[in-house]
Amino acid sequence: SGVKVDVGIELRPSGEQHLSVSVRDTGVGIPPAELNRIFKRFYRVPSATALRVKGTGLGLFIVRSVAERHGGRAWAESAGPGRGSTFTLELPAAPGA
Q1: Rounded to the nearest 5 degrees, what angle is found at the Cα of 39, between the Cα atoms of 83 and 60?
Q2: How far is the C-alpha of 40 from the C-alpha of 71, rounded, in Å?
Q3: Widest CA span of the chain, in angstroms?
Q4: CA atoms within 13 A on the CB side of 54
Q5: What is the pTM of this model?
Q6: Whose CA, among 8, 42, 44, 49, lies 20 to 30 Å from 55?
Q7: Average pLDDT value for residue range 67-88
Q8: Could you give the angle at the alpha carbon of 42 between the alpha carbons of 21 and 9, nearest 5°?
Q9: Cα 53–Cα 57–Cα 63 angle in degrees, nearest 5
Q10: Which of 31, 34, 38 is nearest to 84 (CA)?
């Protein structure tokens, strides 16, 4: 599409017993009202871009479900449309890690 998007990945301790990995991009961003909805089964943010991109709306639902089954969590943050997004997955650290 000719649009340059930068992506960064960060792995860090999160508290004393968890690790988190965050993926940050400079892409299209997410409207604040959509941040919790994007983790619902089959949900896709309504936009012109969504019409051109294949997908079922299950990816983030699966990520959050797996995280929760392992005692973790997953969430998204964005300052809004055109301002990029950050997706974070937090999981318990392995014993002795």
Answers
A1: 85
A2: 19
A3: 47
A4: 0
A5: 0.84
A6: 8
A7: 95
A8: 15
A9: 120
A10: 31
